[in-house]
């Protein structure tokens, strides 16, 4: 399926015939009056900001009349959303854009099934850590049109500042190489991350594995030579059965150290970190149209079975002449 | 048995000690018992009689002095401060701790250098004291202190929000499961035992959590409580009418001790840069790797952030006000460039050049970013740089390395110097300073342009341009 922009007519058709304000997820509709809304009317970025709606019906009317190119709402809750004043708390969000994931095996110019699937794999890994290690609840996953948004509405984290959020991002994506030297009673021991089956070292191992399995000879990683990449590609079968020790030996311990360090910094681009640390960000409104690619931003009920090319395509796309 | 308050003066035991004292009356009176305790300590080295603290205030100052000397004095002799680790002084130590926190809180407030030193000194002191205990006793003390600090058997990681936010601990250092901090061996075996293959779970526990993580948490939490207490004092003091003169006097003396190392030891390159930096023409050789990379042009995503948020503040501060973090004083562009000539002729052209080298050139599809650049220089959202608009926005200070790693990860290609700094501007200052001071040495044929030599150079530099050398580094900059 070709992902082309929606025409103004198609936008109108979408908002008047297909879209329903009831498709806006409850977690937004129930907090409508505390959020700031932003719109992009001509496709040059959301410059119509500081909008507020007293109720769903006002939002419904606005969308039907203005049929915006793109619609956004704040992750923040305010006492006075019209001025972005009286900040109360903000969702903790992670933005995984298929276009920006560190290693794209597809090489497409926009987004395609392959990179969207890769994005989905990343999201699943992040969800595991959010729920498992961090014990967070009330997590929503939204298809954004070109990737996924994870939106955490657990009150345990919503009041946290940017510094804590940046620590969460680093934990989640595996941005620091876990230390390998440990000591007890004056004795030093060496424990590589893959020998520790819990906590952050395990998260790191998962992320590194995912990256290594997708690695291509062209992937640019700091301080990692072509030779190392070749060795990775040659030996990575071992990782399917988690034979890390043998894998590390095959790469060479010094080169392995350089490799994981490079991957750790690459991992920081698994999510767009500035979205996560921004306490006043606006994020694409689920149910609204991503006019750039003619897809619906969609709240996902079951991530395993979700297929954007089935579940997020607006009707007008099927009616296009050149389909 | 050591008292908990010897490690954490803010514990209930510590608070009891203060309550018993009642008031500040007689706080500066001699305490013969304290003198006796100090002198009878077998590992204590005493050079002069006046070195022996003889009351609460002197003991308080000794705590600070110990820390400052330990950090800065190459000839630091820990045996002169042996009494600080002697639990017999607990009662006096606790009082002196409260005196310090209160005086610093009243006089300098929570964001001061004095507070930072006090908090760090307390952390180091706790570690020092723990180190002097037997393994068994130390373990017991850490466990007991933690029990009081953690207030419950199960602790959710979000409890450490403050420690995480102030980066006293890193989230990746904690061992977590279902949101809970795993600290006890029973919990550990219960949660992870079945996953651990080929190793003994108990020894795995010892390595990964054991004494080390517990001690770390305990120390950092005591530090955080100390910081919070100073903040609390500061807030109370603002509504109180008249602070106790004894506290103000003590605060002055603390400040004096802190000023000393910069006069006598100098802040060499090992502490994040040389003497005062005067504004001068940009030297692109001294730019950090991230700036060099941004100057080459940004080829993919993040062009706006790289030019507007990153390059604009960096270039303008490097050219006009490289000292900003050291001075800890915000200024306007026109304070440094009254006619805006340098801004128009040097700074903007360099930024525009970097924007032009982007692919596609930034202003081609996003001409509005010129306005945003003006805004980051403090001139509001206008297309022209005009004095009358200055102040409508603030002059953004350069992003820290931490922020760059998050916002613009592809720019960060750290080299050796990067490891020693936390902000690209510090890198620039440091390199400029090295170029300036090391060059003449090279020219004269000297082969010993080592760190020792250059730190002497700082003192000389500090002498001439006036006060600059005595201004403190910004917290966390080194």
Any overview of this molecule?
The complex is a heterodimer of chains A (323) and B (478). The mean pLDDT of chain A is 94. Chain A starts with 7 loop residues before the first helix and ends in a 5-residue tail after the last helix. In chain A, helix 7 crosses helix 11 (253-267) and helix 10 crosses helix 11 (253-267). Helices cover 40% and strands 18% of the residues of chain A. Chain A is α+β, with helices and mostly antiparallel strands. The relative contact order of chain A is 0.17. Chain A has a 4-stranded antiparallel β-sheet, with no helix packed on it. The longest helix of chain A is centred in the middle third of the chain and has 20 residues, at 113-132. Chain A folds into 2 domains: 1-173 and 271-316, DNA primase, PRIM domain, CATH 3.90.920.10; 181-267, no CATH class. In chain A, a hairpin with a 4-residue loop joins strand 12 (289-290) and strand 13 (295-296). Chain B is mainly α and 478 residues long. Chain B has 2 domains: 4-150 and 216-265, Transcription Elongation Factor S-II, Chain A (Up-down Bundle), CATH 1.20.930; 270-470, no CATH class. In chain B, 56% of the residues lie in helices and 1% in strands. Chain B has a two-stranded antiparallel ribbon with strand order 1-2. The model of chain B is unreliable at 265-275 and 440-478 (pLDDT under 50). The chains are: A alpha+beta (323), B mainly alpha (478). Chains A and B meet through helix 6, strand 9 and helix 12 of A and helix 8, strand 1, helix 10, helix 11 and helix 20 of B. Chain B: Residues 440-478 are annotated as: Disordered. Chain B: Residues 282-417 form the DNA primase large subunit C-terminal domain.
């Amino acid at each position: 399926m070709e992902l082309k922009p929606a025409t103004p007519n198609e936008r109108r058709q979408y908002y008047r015939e297909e879209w329903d304000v009831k498709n806006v997820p409850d977690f937004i509709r129930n907090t409508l009056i505390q959020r700031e809304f932003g719109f992009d009317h001509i496709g040059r970025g959301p410059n119509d900001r500081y909008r507020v709606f007293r109720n769903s019906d006002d939002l419904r009317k606005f969308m039907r009349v203005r049929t915006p190119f793109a619609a956004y709402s704040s992750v923040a809750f305010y006492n006075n959303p019209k001025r972005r004043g009286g900040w109360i708390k903000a969702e903790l969000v992670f933005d995984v854009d298929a276009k920006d994931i560190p290693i794209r095996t597809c090489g497409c110019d926009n987004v395609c099934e392959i990179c969207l699937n890769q994005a989905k794999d990343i999201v699943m890994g992040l969800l595991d850590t959010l729920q498992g290690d961090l014990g967070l609840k009330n997590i929503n996953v939204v298809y954004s049109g070109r990737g996924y948004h994870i939106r955490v509405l657990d009150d345990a984290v919503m009041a946290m500042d940017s510094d804590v959020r940046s620590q969460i991002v680093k934990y989640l994506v595996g941005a620091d190489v876990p230390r390998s030297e440990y000591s007890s009673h004056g004795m030093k021991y060496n424990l590589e991350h893959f020998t520790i089956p819990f906590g952050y070292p395990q998260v790191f191992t998962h992320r590194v594995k995912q990256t290594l399995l997708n690695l291509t000879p062209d992937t640019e990683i700091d301080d990692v030579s072509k030779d190392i990449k070749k060795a990775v590609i040659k030996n990575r079968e071992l990782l399917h059965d988690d034979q890390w020790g043998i894998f590390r030996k095959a790469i060479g311990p010094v080169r392995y150290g350089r490799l994981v360090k490079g991957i750790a910094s690459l991992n920081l681009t698994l999510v767009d970190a500035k979205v996560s640390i921004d306490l006043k960000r606006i994020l694409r409104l689920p149910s609204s149209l991503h006019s750039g690619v003619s897809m619906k931003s969609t709240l996902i009920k079951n991530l395993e079975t979700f297929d954007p090319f089935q579940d997020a395509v607006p009707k007008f796309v099927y009616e296009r002449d050149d389909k | 048995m050591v008292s908990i308050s010897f490690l954490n003066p803010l514990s209930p035991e510590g608070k009891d000690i203060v309550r018993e004292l009642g008031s500040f009356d007689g706080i500066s009176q001699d305490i013969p018992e304290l003198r006796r305790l100090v002198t009878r300590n077998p590992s204590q080295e005493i050079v002069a009689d006046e070195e022996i603290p003889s009351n609460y205030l002197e003991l308080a100052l000794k705590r600070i002095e110990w820390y400052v000397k330990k950090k800065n004095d190459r000839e630091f002799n820990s045996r002169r401060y042996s009494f600080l680790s002697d639990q017999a002084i607990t009662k006096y130590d606790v009082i002196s701790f409260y005196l310090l926190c209160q005086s610093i809180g009243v006089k300098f407030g929570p964001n001061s250098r004095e507070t930072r030193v006090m908090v760090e000194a307390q952390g180091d002191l706790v570690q020092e004291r723990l180190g002097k205990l037997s393994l068994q006793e130390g373990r017991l003390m850490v466990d007991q202190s933690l029990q009081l600090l953690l207030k419950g058997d199960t602790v959710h990681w979000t409890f450490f929000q403050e420690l995480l936010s102030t980066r006293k601990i890193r989230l990746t250092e904690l061992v977590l499961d279902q949101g809970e901090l795993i600290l006890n061996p029973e919990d550990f075996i219960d949660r992870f035992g079945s996953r651990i293959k080929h190793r003994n779970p108990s020894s795995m526990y010892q390595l990964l959590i054991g004494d080390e993580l517990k001690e770390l948490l305990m120390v950092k939490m005591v530090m955080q409580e100390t910081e919070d207490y100073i903040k609390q004092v500061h807030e109370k003091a603002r509504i109180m009418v008249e602070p106790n003169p004894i506290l103000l006097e003590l605060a002055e003396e603390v400040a004096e001790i802190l000023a000393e190392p910069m006069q006598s030891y100098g802040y060499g390159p090992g502490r994040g840069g040389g003497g005062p930096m005067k504004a001068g023409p940009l030297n692109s050789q001294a730019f950090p790797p991230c700036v060099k990379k941004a100057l080459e042009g940004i080829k993919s995503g993040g062009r706006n952030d790289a030019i507007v948020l990153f390059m604009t503040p960096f270039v303008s501060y490097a050219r006009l006000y490289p000292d900003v973090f050291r001075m800890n004083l915000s200024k306007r562009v026109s304070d440094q460039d009254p006619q805006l000539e340098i801004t128009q002729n040097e700074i903007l052209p360099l930024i525009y050049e970097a924007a032009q080298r982007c692919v596609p050139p930034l202003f081609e599809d996003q001409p509005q970013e010129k306005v945003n650049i003006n805004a980051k220089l403090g001139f509001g959202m206008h297309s022209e740089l005009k004095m009358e608009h200055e102040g409508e926005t603030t002059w953004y200070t350069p992003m820290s390395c931490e922020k760059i790693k998050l916002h613009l990860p592809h720019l960060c290609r750290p080299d050796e110097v990067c490891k020693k700094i936390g902000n690209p501007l510090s890198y620039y200052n440091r390199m400029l300073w090295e170029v300036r001071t090391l060059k003449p040495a090279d020219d004269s044929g000297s082969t010993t342009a080592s760190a020792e030599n250059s730190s002497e150079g700082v003192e000389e530099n500090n002498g001439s341009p006036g006060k600059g050398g005595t201004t403190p580094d910004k917290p966390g900059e080194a």
